[in-house]
Amino acid sequence: MSKRKSFAHEQELRAVIYNPERFAGISGTYPIPEHKRNYGMHAATDLDLLIEQIRVLPDASAEFRKSIDSLCDKYGLKKDVKQSRLDDDPLY
Fold it and tell me: N or C: which end of the chain has fewer CB within 10 A?
């Protein structure tokens, strides 16, 4: 897994759950039926703990922000949705 250096500021967290029973390995053979190969796995997470803040594009509409607020409510995420200030003049 890799990420371009231009996105290093995001400090993104990525997680991989390795399950050898679902891994094809070098041989390319699967120990489980083909119809189950591409299913994902669910992992319990605490989004309020993992997510520090939510920012939307500088030109995101109020409607878009409202939809993000709605998703936060739906999934119990207690974070304010803030407008990104990337379009502001730099502070140097």
Answer: C
Count CB neighbours of 83 within 10 A: 14
Cα(88)–Cα(52) distance, integer angstroms? 22
Strands (E), the chain: 54-56, 81-83
SS3 state at 83: strand
Locus of tokens 């990525």: 14
pLDDT at 91 over 80: no
Q: What is the pTM of this model?
A: 0.52
Look at residue 63 and tell me whether its pLDDT is greater than 90: yes
Q: Copy the structure tokens of residue 23.
A: 């891994």
Q: Are 83 and 65 in contact (CB under 8 A)?
A: yes
